[in-house]
Amino acid sequence: MPRPTRAELAAARDRTVPDVIGAGLAVLFCGINPSLYSGATGRHFARPGNRFWPALHLSGFTPRLLDPGEQGLLTDYGLGVTNLVARATARADELSDDELTRGGHRLRGLVAEYEPRVVAVVGITAYRVAFAAPKAVIGAQAELFESVRVWVLPNPSGLNAHYQLPDLAAEFRRLRESLG
Question: For residue 29, is it left (φ>0), alpha (ψ between -120 and 50) or beta?
Fold first, then answer.
């Protein structure tokens, strides 16, 4: 797929990307919100440099590296993906705390409806705001959404310099191994 032009990226502001979700998932991954690149392409974690797809593969969630255009295959592996906030922005810091909190309520509703084994929020800062958990850390959380376990993973954006791909994949692997 060709890279979106500047005009296409600008036009993608506030677009949404449909959830990839179904009943009986092992893990429902929840991003913060779509990038403009994702909004322009209609694909989750689509921006080149985003490490979500490589981390999924390197951690053993998928048998091969998937392209964002293959996001529909996630459910075949017992995985799904959604976002706290549906609208595309250039940067996550464009979102208000209120939007993140409303997104947290929406996520709880999705979890109640689809009942994945685990919901994994990718982005510790967004998780802390959305769920009023200022001391939350990466990994399993004490809180459950209904009876569903909650896990927080580092943001896979290429802008997150705190986690290089091997470290990010190791955190994803910890989640996968917790599934048994």
Answer: beta
